[in-house]
Amino acid sequence: MGRLKELRRSRGLTQEGLANEIGTSQQTISRIENNEDMIPTDLLVKLAKYYHVSADYIMSLTNEKYNMPGSDRVMQYVEAYSDDFTLYDSLSPENKEVVKAVISTLTRLQEESKN
To answer: Which pLDDT value is given to residue 23?
Structure first.
């Protein structure tokens, strides 16, 4: 499972770190990455959701990471701004509303300056 190792390393994770993230053992990740064991369906689904890629991509059935029209662009944003999303997630509901209001105001001002 070369793709699984590639995905794990792209996130800077060890096998143990990935195992902890998705609720399995380091040994399971190792056996799958080294093609010593087949990947169980439930674990494949967890991995696809965790990495935001298709199961077909993990299993090397396709070179397309995402299988929905337009999802490549969305996932590029998610990957590029994942730290920002994490920070946003940590905000209180009130502060999230403030962020939305600031973005809305900046967008409006930008549109007005174009006219």
So the answer is: 94
